[in-house]
Records
---
Amino acid sequence: MESRPPAPLRPVTPEERARREALLTLAEATRRLSDVVARTAVGPEVLKEAEADVRRATAALDAAHLGGPYSHLMDGVDYDHPSLTLPLSPIIGAYSPVRPEVELWLDDGRVLGKARLERKHTGPPDTAHGGVVALIADQLMAVVPWTLQVATTATKTLTVRYRRPLPLYVDVDLEASGEAVEKGVRARGAMSAGGVVCVEVEAELVVVSFARERPREQPM
């Protein structure tokens, strides 16, 4: 599931655009690496060589850092591109090196999506860990307010019902919708594999402001 940036929401220099394109593919390669590590059957010599290569790459990448929220990879809120509005989300972030292969999009007042969980997400044999499933469910609910043009919400309650195990290496369909309520949004959704609902989820989300509060004055 490949992510490509839409037209930027603020000016981006050609150098920064090229860096971001390279970072997108590096993040994808890192995710691929993490699953291969969980499945590999190669011998110790190959493993040691691979470890040395990974450590060299880590040292090279650690030479310079970006600060700020989302490492300055977020240009603004774009309701059509959740993966770029939440660029480092551990579930859908386009630049996240740790996320599962999950993609969400908005369609006619609903959130739709696809997911594919791998060996690194194992819980019971050949099925996804319930904690990983809950993370996806939480992110699915968090995007529902966008269908109502509300971006700044936080999850107040989350209820996940595990009806069936979610298999690995199978395409999972995601869908959710919601409605505005006092001070927030009520959302509901499902995760299905092979046309069978495996997980149901409900959530309450409240509108919040992430603006930094002014420091309180100290008493004299």
Note: The domain at 100-207 is CATH 3.10.129.10 (Thiol Ester Dehydrase; Chain A).
---
Amino acid sequence: MTRNIKKAAIKIAVAAILAFVLIASAFAGNFEHLAEEMKDMGLFRGTDTGFELDRVPNRAEAVIMLIRLLGVEEDALEGDYEHPFTDVPDWADAHVAYAYENGLTTGTAATLFDPRTECSAQMFVTFMLRALGYSDLDGDFTYSDAIDFGKGVGIIDDFLANGPFLRDDMVAVAYLALGTAPNDGEFDTLLDKLVDEGAVPEAAAEPVLKKFALYDELSKVGSELDGEARLAMSATMSMDMGDFGSAQAAIGLIVIAEGDSVMAEIQTTMHMAGQEYVNEYYVADGYVYTIEDSVKQKKAADQADIDVDALINLSNARLIAATPIYAIKSIAKSPEDASTVYTIDLTEGYKSTVVNDVLGLMGDSGFDMAQVNGLDIEFDGLAAYADSDGALEKIKMVMTIKMEMKMEGISLTLPMKATLEIKFLERGEGVIITLPDDLDEYVLVEP
């Protein structure tokens, strides 16, 4: 059984390394932390039953958010504004009146506003663009292209735009708008403007503005890799597996990608129970070539143990430093020797997706997922290191992994306290791959 556990540990190590350096394309949204931050600034108050983030927002709620992010809620509540609608509830009456008199919204009929009609992503993004000073009346954008225009401005992405638009997503879009510069160019962020105008107390905004500033710095770390098609990196993982002993895994990875074409050289080394296990992989000409236990085989890339699409994404540097801010609970910055360290705490939704990514990558690599009853990953530390020039040096993670498995008819728990360190060694034209001369001798394995 020890050999099977060794194989399982290798698969987990390889999958975890790939999963953590790739940006998840989607994850379970859970933005309660953003709702709390916005509540502290007086910009989001929820209902008498809580934030209700798991339901669709309505038109009245969207107008209230618009008024608050315009910084005019006090004026709306204290002013003598009117509207012709007979169906607006008292709690939204002043906000709708201000929006109506200032040309920010209209009704669905002469005397109807339809306050409880569902608010779509398109509608809410339109409101947030107006809060940022963009005008669909003046031709900055049109309602029909509001989503695409909003993506260009940076207040929505594919994840938030696709699927049902919930109050959870509404909070995330509003938060992104707060961190975006208004169209007039006078302020770095909309939140700076609201503080300057007295709509948000400076003390309440300070931690959020600091988070925005650190996120901007973090986003620039590794930005020189964007679109890079040549990348050499190494990764190491040490694992304490309790009663099953300890293990150390190392991966050397070189990727060269041009469009959908990819060439790669991967070597994994696992030290466990006094033994060393080495696997070699080469990706070229649409095939993945492997050497495992001295057996040389090749498979078509779409049938292979290595996820070639993941390698293409990796070569294009979709790094954790580009994680969207709504997936981050907090960022801290500190010096360490000659480096600057950014320590990141991710949301539970993002963590859940990493678990799913690891499971998916293990399945793609040929692991028998029928043996897996459950997987839990807890981050004990996640940090990005930048050198004195602001270039990404490495990503370091400390995590606790617990996998419930059934092997050879026996149920067991495979615990791992793992430290993962990924170093970015070289990029650009200096990165080369030398393929073995005997690739034509590898035996084709049919699916």
Note: The chain is about 30% helix and 30% strand.
